[in-house]
Amino acid sequence: MDQQAQFRRQPRILAIVLAGGAGGRLGALTDHRAKPAMPLGGSFRLIDVSLSNLHHSGISDVWIMEQYQPKTINDHLRNGRPWDLDRTRGGLLVLPPFSGHEGEGFAEGNADGLLRQASFIRDFAPDLVLVLSSDHLYRLDYRDVVDTHLRTGAALTMVTVDFDGDASHHGVVTVGDGGRVTGFAYKPEEPQSDIVTAEVFLYTAGTLLESLDHLQDSHDGLGDYGHHLVPHLVEQGSVVEHRLDGYWRDLGTPANYLRAHLDLVDGKGLELADPEWPLLTEPPQLVPAFIGEGAVVSNSLVAPGATVHGTVRRSVIGSGATVEAGAVVEDSVLLNRVRLRSGTHVRYAIVDSDADLSGDYAGTAPEDPAVVDRTGQLGD
Predict the structure, then answer these.
(1) Which end of the chain is flanked by fewer CB atoms within 10 Å, N or C?
(2) Looking at the record, which segments are called Disordered (predicted)?
(3) DSSP H helical ranges for 57-98
């Protein structure tokens, strides 16, 4: 029976959001929070992107795979209520590391994380498993990916993008006729194409579980998806791409994080308030932003609870932040509750939550921003 015939009924889809990594590339910004809990656009969190896409795509069986600093994610999830996932049946389920039987302990990479949850996936008995990272900014109806998967009879459909940056930091894909993936290299030194994975993977559940079992027997640890799992399926000739034509950016480095926020204020990124596909989050219990007399604010996003008396140009000001009179912010992101004292100048910088700054803080360019930690020191 072909895959389309098998799933003439609505396939049962399990979404797994990978939210366990330490986010080390963001340096001091993730010393005290998980990367998926990083603020986005002043009023949101990174994990809101995948959860909002799932909500709008009508996918309601969602597991969050946690490991590093899980409380910072759980405080935001609120049982899934903002994304209509607080349900009696289905809805949101958090998967922390565990001990006691097979699969216990901390995962060493996202494919290893899937292996540790394999018995729970098998018990849930989905038809398809949608695996998502939680540190990318994009908009996608996952139902379109499902359509591609069923139409082609693939074991794995990976979402891909035409990338205009350094592809060597990503999984690089070569594509043949009909969207068939003919080659895959994980973070290669010399990429053979500009097509990279968007880290959205849709697996046929049975094939995923069989592959995990097979690879476990032949490898000492599975690591990340690009080490063994995806290459194994590509070798079987059972992988296709689904090309994402819209905006996509990996926010896992300071440069990309700042670049994405500058894209938002420049109107080059996503429209966060798109009425057809809004970004959903836990609504803050904060008063509206206050812009004082004499303040200068241009081409910027100012979150609820912020107070601006100084100058803000092409920047994002987080909730509860204060820019005093005489302070200047340019081409930067201030996270929640930052305070800039009079005379402070911040440019090409990301300032961590609760920092209280006096003086000058500047990176050399958007591609090389300064990261200021919550104590006011320049971070790594």
Answers:
(1) N
(2) 359-380
(3) 70-77
Strand partners, 334: 317, 351
C-alpha distances (whole Å) from 132 to each of 114, 148, 245, 256, 290 are 12, 17, 18, 19, 37
DSSP track, 91-122 = EEEEE----SSTT-S--SSHHHHHHHTHHHHH
For 265-295, what is each residue's pLDDT tens digit? 999 888 888 899 999 998 878 899 999 999 9
What is the pLDDT at residue 161?
Answer: 95
The answer to which of 95-104, 143-152, 255-264, 331-340 has the lowest mean pLDDT is: 95-104
| Cβ atoms 280, 57 nearer than 8 A | no
Which residues touch 177 (CB under 8 Å, ≥6 apart)? Answer: none
Is pLDDT at 3 greater than 80 in this prediction?
A: no
Task: Find, among 28, 17, 97, the residue nearest to 57 by Cα.
Answer: 17
Sheet holding 349-351, edge to edge: 301-302, 316-317, 333-334, 349-351, 370-372
Beta pairing, strands 44-45 & 39-40:
antiparallel
Q: Could you tell me how many helices (H) and strands (E) the chain has, helices first?
A: 9, 28
Domains along the sequence of the chain with CATH = 3-266 (3.90.550.10), 290-372 (2.160.10.10)
pLDDT digits (tens, 9 = 90+) for 302-317: 999 999 999 999 999 9
* pLDDT at residue 118 greater than cutoff 80: yes
User: Closest Cα partner for 36 from 76, 84, 92?
Assistant: 76
Q: Which residues contact 165 (CB under 8 A, 6 or more apart)?
A: none
- For residue 121 the two structure tokens come to 């996936």
The token duo for 324 is: 């005093």
Token representation of residue 231: 């290459």
Q: Are strands 333-334 and 345-347 parallel, antiparallel or unpaired?
A: unpaired
> In a 3-state reduction of DSSP, which class is residue 211?
helix
Sign of the dihedral through C-alpha 265, 270, 274, 278: negative
